[in-house]
Amino acid sequence: MTLTGIQGDPGKTYSKKDRLTVALINQQRRTRMANHIMVFIKNVMTPVSYTQQPGDFARRQGDLNEVLVHVGFRVNDEGRLARGPQARTLDEAAQHANSLRIELRRRATHPEVLAYCTAEILTKNAFHASLEASKSVSARLRQLTGEQGDGSRLVDATLMPGSTGTPRVAINSGSSTTDLDEQRGFANVLKGLLSMYRNPTAHDPRIHRQVTDDELLELLTTLSMIHRRLDTATVNP
């Protein structure tokens, strides 16, 4: 749709986004003032409107900042437009927008990871996001095999070769020593992550177990790699 020269509401045959764009452009043409978009953002992002859905505020704030950072603006936590650093590249935009969700999207984080912790990310709760994300792989292994249990016991039952030499979930052909080493290493990496994040965060108060955004990002990236290996794994009876 070309907006040049359009007057008034283009009608319901167009999307809400296009109708809003036309309305803002026409208002700016009528008043010869350039601040209508800023006023619109301020009204939409008033924090009191999100008291029941704080995650919606965080999501919209992140989406807006990913674009506004290219022109040196940002939406602050008060819902107001403020001056900020200007990004010259997409990587800089993700960094300056200061949104973990934006960076996870840039890294194409596996949807199985995001399904377990998006709500916690939106509310900026890194502690519980790490706990919920770590549960995603255990749930995936149970779903693939029908095994029960949790933690190291579940990993041993599903990923370790065991007495048969064939794991329930095999990430490679298992036809060489290198394959077997990789399989065991994969299982041990997962057991280590569960020991670091699933167990302590499940039992320790948040005040005694701080998880930074950088640490959470590294964890979610690693869990994403694990899920991608499971995507192509072979499930044995």
Account of the protein in words:
- With 237 residues, this protein is mainly α.
- The chain folds into 2 domains: 35-98, no CATH class; 126-235, no CATH class.
- It contains 10 helices and 4 strands.
- The chain has a two-stranded antiparallel sheet with strand order 1-2. It has a two-stranded antiparallel sheet with strand order 3-4.
- The radius of gyration is 24 Å and the shape is elongated.
How large is the share of residues in beta strands? Answer: under 5%
Unreliable stretches, pLDDT < 50, 5 or more residues? 1-7
Structural class from helices and strands?
mainly alpha
Give a count of the beta strands, DSSP E runs of length 2 or more.
4
Q: Widest sheet: strand order? A: 1-2
Distance between the termini: 55 Å
What's the story with the biggest beta sheet?
Answer: 2 strands, antiparallel
Using the CA coordinates, give the radius of gyration: 24 Å
Mean pLDDT, to the nearest integer, reads 83
Please estimate the helix content.
55-70%
Shape: elongated
| Count of separate structural domains | 2
H/E element order: HHHEEHHHHHEHHE
Count of DSSP-assigned helices? 10
